[in-house]
Write a structure and sequence with these properties.
Layout: H1 4-7, H2 10-17, H3 19-25, H4 27-40, E1 45-50, H5 56-64, E2 68-74, H6 77-94, H7 97-103, E3 104-108, H8 111-118, E4 123-127, H9 136-146, E5 152-158, H10 165-174, H11 194-203, E6 206-221, H12 226-236, H13 239-246, H14 249-263, E7 267-268, E8 271-285
Parallel strand pairs: 1-2, 1-4, 2-3, 4-5
Antiparallel strand pairs: 5-8, 6-8, 7-8
Helix pairs in contact: 2-6, 4-5, 6-7, 8-9, 10-14, 12-14
Length: 289
C-alpha cells in the first residue's frame, strides 16, 4: 500500500530519480488521457493537475489550450523540481518564457489543501494521481468545492491488478497473493473497482459522466539489454520494489531470476512491453453545498 505520506518522502524521491523510465512506461497512458482531456477542456480559464508528477499532463494541457492557466500540484518536492525545469526547457525551446511563466505553474502540497486556495477552477485533471488519498471522499470533496459548478474532472487510474499483466506477471513471479478489490485502500489499484469509484465521486459532489476502459502498451525496458533495464525499473518502481529491497541478497537474486524469466517472453522490437489496463473517468462538479 502506498499512501500520500509516502509520496512526500521516499517514493516521490525515487520517482523523481527514475522519471525518464516512468515517463516511458506511461507514454501510452498519457496519449489516451491527454486526448480525453483535450476533448473536454475549455478554451480559457484555470485548470489544476492533481498529482502532477514531473508535469507531463500539465505541459500537454498548456500546449493544447493556450488560453488556460494550468497549475500542477504534487506532494513530492523532487518531482515538482523536475516539472519546473521541464517547463523552463519547453519555454526556451518555444522562445516564449514570459508567456509560459504566466500560463504554467507548479506547487508542492496536498491537492485537498491547495486547490481550495486557488478557487474557481474550470477543469481538474490527473494522470494516475488520485489513487493515493488517505480519505478519497474528503479529497474529492475539496476538489469539487474548488471547481466551478459544471467544471469537468478528467483522470486516469489502473483497473484491477489481474487485468494489468505487468503487475500480475510480477506477482506470479514473486508468489504474491492477490488482494481483493471492492474496498478502497491507497495505492496503484485503489480505484480499480468502477462501482466503488463512482460511489466515492458521488459522495464527494461529482456527477459521473462515465468511465472508459483502455488497454495500452506499457514499456518497462529497452536498450541494448532490455531485461536488465526492466529489472532496474522494477527494483525501484512498482509492487516488486519493496519486496526486492527487503529480501536478503541470496533471496533477492532468486527473485530477480524469476522476474527476468517472466520478462523474456515480453520482448518485442527490442523492448519489454506489457499491457496497462486503465480507466479514464470524466465527472462534473455539482452545485456547491
Amino acid at each position: 500500500m502506498t499512501s500520500g505520506a509516502d509520496w512526500s518522502g521516499r517514493v516521490g524521491a525515487t520517482w523523481a530519480a527514475e522519471w525518464h523510465r516512468t515517463e516511458r512506461a506511461f507514454a501510452d497512458i498519457a496519449r489516451v488521457l491527454d486526448a480525453a482531456i483535450t476533448a473536454t477542456a475549455p478554451v480559457a480559464g484555470r485548470a489544476a493537475d492533481v498529482g502532477c508528477g514531473v508535469g507531463s499532463t500539465t505541459l500537454a494541457l498548456a500546449a493544447a489550450r493556450p488560453g488556460l492557466r494550468v497549475i500542477g500540484v504534487d506532494l513530492a518536492a523532487p518531482l515538482v523540481a523536475v516539472a519546473r525545469e521541464r517547463a523552463r526547457a519547453c519555454a526556451r525551446e518555444a522562445d516564449d518564457d514570459a508567456d509560459r511563466e504566466r500560463r504554467v505553474d507548479f506547487l508542492v502540497g496536498d491537492a485537498a489543501a491547495v486547490l481550495p486556495t486557488l478557487g474557481g477552477l474550470d477543469l481538474i485533471v490527473s494522470r494516475h494521481g488520485v489513487m493515493f488519498f488517505d480519505d478519497p471522499v474528503v479529497s474529492f470533496t475539496a476538489m469539487a468545492r474548488a471547481a466551478r459548478p459544471g467544471a469537468p474532472l478528467v483522470f486516469s487510474c489502473f483497473r484491477t491488478r489481474e487485468e494489468n499483466d505487468w503487475a500480475s506477471a510480477l506477482g506470479a513471479a514473486l508468489g504474491a497473493t492477490p488482494r481483493p478489490t471492492g474496498a478502497y485502500a491507497p495505492g496503484p489499484f485503489g480505484f480499480a473497482d468502477r462501482a466503488l469509484t463512482r460511489d466515492i465521486l458521488a459522495a464527494a459532489g461529482w456527477r459521473d459522466e462515465g468511465a472508459t476502459r483502455h488497454d495500452v502498451r506499457y514499456v518497462v525496458g529497452s536498450g541494448d539489454d532490455p531485461i536488465a533495464d526492466a529489472l532496474a525499473f522494477f527494483r525501484r518502481i512498482g509492487p516488486a520494489a519493496a519486496a526486492l529491497a527487503a529480501a536478503e541478497p541470496d533471496e533477492r537474486a532468486v527473485m530477480e531470476r524469476r522476474i527476468a524469466a517472466a520478462l523474456a517472453p515480453r520482448i518485442r522490437d527490442g523492448a519489454v512491453a506489457f499491457t496497462a489496463a486503465i480507466w479514464v473517468w470524466v465527472a462534473r462538479a455539482g452545485e456547491p453545498s
